[in-house]
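Incident log entry.

Two folding requests arrived from the same account within the same minute. Monitoring flagged them as a possible duplicate submission, but the sequences differ. Recording both here for audit purposes.

Request one:
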Amino acid sequence: ALVSGAVEELRGLPSALRSRKISRFLKENGVLEPERSHIRAVEGLVFSEKPSAKINLPSGVTIAREYDRLVALENRSMPEEVTLLPGDVLQLPQWGMAVSYVPAEEIINTKEIFTVNVSGPVVLRSRQTGDGIRLNAGTCTLKKLFIDRKIPAHQRPHIPVLADGQGVLGVWGIGANVDRLATKLPALQIRLEPLK
């Protein structure tokens, strides 16, 4: 994602100068012939009350507002759900992750390692409506958690969520569901790390 000037800065510019800056931003980000309607649409993002609004423009470019900045996004498809079996050590390029799901040698829980009590098949997937997790600070939905942590809307579907039949086990980069933590061995451990 390529970053433009701050939204507040664009809001403060005279209309003609703001249009020129937006036009240059669009050209730099793949909209070769920005039309007046494209510039107006981006101005709509700049003045929008929604901190994560976005618009789709020709040539597969999406311009998104991420709180106080504008970014151009490549249109990436949603990664597919993957079922994990005990003993799996997998490379998942669609997620940009390597995952291992093996017996734990010790109980460790971090933002990338989850030693949890599992019930049934485990899936690695995107957030779904109604997903919730209990962290040390309390229980909340993943939607609220992602908003509170200012994770841009376009990134949220690409954050790996581990779940089984009883719900969320953990979220990569955030941590394990404290209601599902294993307290003794033997237990299974899921480890996620970005592909090199």
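Request two (distinct sequence, not a duplicate):
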Amino acid sequence: LLAVLSESQRTQLVPFMVRHEVLDGAVIVDEGEDGSSMFFILEGACQVQVRSGPEWREVARLWPGDHFGEMSLLTGNPRSARVSMVSEGVVLELPKEALSGLLEASPDLLAKISAGVLARTEQSDAVRRRADPHAQREHASRVEALALQMRRFFGLLRH
């Protein structure tokens, strides 16, 4: 997400970051919750779990330098997973308000961010997209749809 931002734009986000010291076992975000922020792990480790019937199933481990919650930050969609600490740690939270000013000043940034987010979530489909021209067109239309959803969420639609 931040890779598409210039150094100056990343610097503008720093005052908005909220530092959280989190205890082992604490749930940071829970599946189905409303969300409009993302998190960066500075210290410790997190587990990502999704509900599978009545049980929770771990689908990933996250470490310092990893992030989560970007889809809720960018679209306002409910959280798609539970993320909790598996050790004491520190996370930084980036709220929606931090991006609002950047997106208003640089409307082209929205397309770059949406493309970057989709690329990250579709890494496992990369081989299929290379081999299938239809899948490449489908990816482009998904980027456009995500950008439109983000424009609505940030109030950037021109009437």
